[in-house]
Amino acid sequence: MIDINKTTKMRIHITSFLLLLCSSSYAQDVSTPIQMLVDKMEKINMYMSSAVGYAGMKPEQWEHYEELKKKATDEELIILTDYRNSAVKCYAFQALAERKHPKTFDILLLHLNDKETVSIVQGCIGGYQTVGEFFLEVVTPKFISLSAYKLNEYQQYKVDSLLRFDEK
Known about the structure:
Layout: H1 6-24, H2 32-44, E1 47-52, H3 60-71, H4 74-80, H5 86-98, H6 104-111, E2 117-123, E3 125-130, H7 131-139, H8 153-167
Parallel strand pairs: 1-2
Antiparallel strand pairs: 2-3
């Protein structure tokens, strides 16, 4: 087992900090139509997949997500990955990953240890998980959206090393 050293971890934190500084140079607010959509998503306050329940119906929350993905700019989605509501964060990150945005991996690293929980319903199964776990599942090969940005072998190693290092 190879363990990541302190220097490498410090470089990752510095890179993450610089990304945060760069993303803060964007407008601090999202547009009014996007904020109205986010307000609706926040009111439901759950991550719901494209088909839920016994009949596999498309929930209203997924329709909000599709609209967010279609209408929000990349910059708005980046801002929303830091939003106060965990469900909004998750949908914003998934939209960025589905666009294969070049900052997807950096945003994952920033949120890898985000312990805020999100209520999730996928199909007939519901539960809770942390935002960091959800972000990781989105970019893990063969999980969630198969067409989204996926980690390469080196990135998987880096994430695994960070998670093992942080457990100690």
